[in-house]
Amino acid sequence: MSPEIVVPRFTVVTLGVSEMRRSIAFYASLGFARKFRATGEAVAFFDTGGTVLALYPWDALAQDAGLPDAPRPQAFRGVTLAWNCRSEAEVDAALAAAVEKGATLLKAAQPTDYGGYCGYFADPDGHVWEAVVAPGIEVGDDGRVRLPE
After folding, report:
1. Which pTM value belongs to this model?
2. CATH number for the segment(s) 1-69
3. How far is residue 132's CA from residue 70's CA, in Å, rounded to a whole number?
């Protein structure tokens, strides 16, 4: 029997959260569509238009990964999530909506050195999101990102 060929794919990003109910409400309020609700509050899945955003209790996720759940990092964690937008106005609107729903504005939107426009917010558990419009990266009418070859 020959070894199976492994095809790399990015399918789900799971965020460890402190309060499932609060985080579910936050991401639903941003407009992400919750799917597979049969899981209740044990785990929550949101359709993001290409991948899945999952929420799982912080301590249980750490335990599942075989890592300690404390101390929880207060500094930059080395990861950002991106919300690619079609225009500067959409970046501003995304940041405003996130803050209105309970996010913390980390950096107001401004022009970037690569010709884009972006700002940053943190969700209620400190997960960092970038709202960005970037030259050469197209966001289709379906909300999916298309990269040039």
Report:
1. 0.90
2. 3.10.180.10
3. 31
